[in-house]
Amino acid sequence: MVGLMALPAPSRAQDAVGTCGDANSPYAVVQIDTFPRLDLELARTSQEHQLGLGDREYVPPDSGMLFVYQSPSTESYWMYHTLIPLSIAWIDRNGSIVDIQDMPRLNDPYDQQEAGRHVYTPSGAYWYALEVNEGWFVQHGVGVGQQIVFCLGGA
Q1: I need a surface site. Which of 57, 72, 137, 146 has the fewest CB within 10 A?
Q2: 114: nearest Cα among 83, 88, 80
């Protein structure tokens, strides 16, 4: 289980990540401040990162995927094999949102060349990436610089 909570002020790194829940569970539950609950799948391995939310025709409202990295990353994301439009928030180790971008659906999600022309690169290094249905962050007033507290099983 993963918990997220928006904080009004920055916190120390050790405050951003706590331990709880089942470390091997592929699912997480997220609550950001008073906003709707997010039910998330976890992507912790390189293989899970590559698969992401690809080849899915639907992601329920208030659902998504949290990508967890073991060290700072600057990897870009793309929409290859991704059938639905998404928004992504990149989050640093301290739990601060570094960047948020919308990633529209490609005309042909299976065209690698088209996907390669639409690459999404964060403005800084991150430890977590949170993908949700496109527009979720704007609809819920979640923005860059906002603090999030994680509760990751076995983190």
Answers
A1: 57
A2: 80
27 located within any domain: yes
- CA-nearest of 33, 28, 62, 32 to 48 is 28
Owner of token pair 């993908």: 131
Residue 1 lies in a domain: no
**Phi and psi torsions of 7, nearest 5°:** -115, 150
Q: Which ranges constitute the DSSP H helices of 17-105?
A: 46-51
Give the torsion sign (CA, 34, 42, 146, 11): positive
- Report the mean per-residue pLDDT for the chain: 81
The pTM for the full model equals 0.81
Q: What is the mean pLDDT of each run of 10 residues along the chain (155 residues)?
A: 38 42 53 65 94 96 92 96 97 91 98 97 96 94 82 55
